[in-house]
Every structure is written in C-alpha cells, then in structure tokens.
Design a protein that fits this description.
Blueprint (H helix, E strand, L loop, with lengths): L4 H10 L3 E2 L1 E6 L5 E6 L3 E4 L4 E7 L5 H6 L2 E6 L5 H6 L13 E4 L2 E4 L4 E13 L2 E13 L4 E5 L2 E5 L5
Antiparallel strand pairs: 1-11, 2-3, 2-6, 4-5, 5-10, 6-9, 7-8, 9-10, 11-12
The structure holds flavin mononucleotide (FMN).
C-alpha cells in the first residue's frame, strides 16, 4: 500500500523527540494568552536568537503573530496538564496566579526555564509563520523535563550535576 507523503512526514517528525514549551503573548486588549509549542529551536548565540513556528490556522494567530514581546516557558515533567490546557482553544487565557514577570514579559510560574523575547524577524513558510525572537533575559530551574514523542507525553530526568 502506498504511504501518504504527509502522513510519512508527520510520522518521521514525530520520531524527533522534543521538549514542550508554552509561548505567552498579550492580545490587542492586553489579555495574556498561552500556546503549547514544541517547535522551539535555538538559532544563534551572538546575538541570542531562537525561533518557533506558529500555525496559520490557529484561532490565536493574530495576537501571537503580531506580538512584539513574548515569553517562552520550558515545561517540567510535572506539567503535562499545563501542556494539555494551553493546547486547547478554550483554556488558553492566563489566569491570576499562572504567571510571573521576566523583563516585563509574562511567563508561566512553573517550568524548567523561562525566556523573555522581542520579535527580531518573521518569515512566512508554508502553513506556518516562523517567529524569530531576540532573547532579552533567561533563567533556569532544576527538574526533569516534559517530552513529546510520537504524539505522546513523557519525561526525561537527564543529568543532575
Ligand atoms: C505538544 C504540542 C506541541 C505543539 N506545538 C505547536 C507549535 O509549535 N506551533 C503551533 O502553532 N501550534 C502547536 N501546537 C498546537 C497549539 O498548542 C494549539 O493546540 C493550536 O494552536 C490550536 O489552538 P488555537 O486554534 O486556539 O491556537 C502544539 C500542540 C501540542 C499538544
């Protein structure tokens, strides 16, 4: 049987295990939203740049595409419910107590790492928008990581030293 090329591509990329993050940005009314994202990639050290890819069909496309400043929180192994929550359109608003501030940008209170970013460049690519951010500030906390692999969540403890 012939394999559908899109399915083959999805399966191949699903074999690429990633961490899980929540990107946070404010909409035009100043309300903060979160989106579960695993397309995060480090781009450059000097200057410090990272990217993530925003789906063009997202109901929240405008606020995330237009945000000048936004946050990234790398989720820990205990945050699967957080990842599921921010992947659902109805529960993506940040509630009081969810967030703290880094360089004036809201990031989630939980997490292994938090980064505050300013949009450096945007590139339309197929059905996604590549958003490249300059890192304004970053901080890290200890703990095991939440992972995403072949469509399912897992965890990895990694090195403790
Ligand atoms: C593990 C995981 C990773 C995801 N990564 C991305 C991503 O990198 N970019 C993206 O646009 N959506 C990603 N999504 C989908 C969004 O979290 C969200 O479900 C989607 O945008 C639909 O909701 P919306 O229409 O309200 O935006 C991911 C979802 C999951 C569960």
């Amino acid at each position: 049987m012939e394999i559908d090329p899109e399915q083959a591509y999805r399966r191949a990329m699903g074999a690429f295990a990633t961490g899980v993050t929540v990107v946070t940005a404010a909409d035009a009314d100043g309300a903060w939203l979160g989106m579960t994202v695993n397309s995060l990639t480090s781009v450059s050290l000097a200057p410090r740049l990272l990217l993530w890819c925003l789906g063009a069909r997202s109901a929240r496309y405008a606020p995330f595409a237009e945000a000048d400043r936004w946050g990234v929180t790398v989720l820990g192994a205990d945050a699967e419910a957080t990842a599921r929550r921010f992947a659902k359109a109805t529960t993506q608003d940040l509630q009081a107590g969810d967030a703290e501030t880094l360089a004036g940008i809201k990031v989630l209170r939980t997490g292994l790492a938090q980064l505050a970013c300013r949009t450096h460049h945007r590139v339309e690519a197929g059905d996604h928008l590549i958003i490249i951010g300059e890192v304004l500030d970053a901080r890290t906390h200890a703990g095991a990581a939440l992972t995403f692999f072949r469509g399912g969540y897992g965890e990895i403890a990694g090195r403790t030293d």
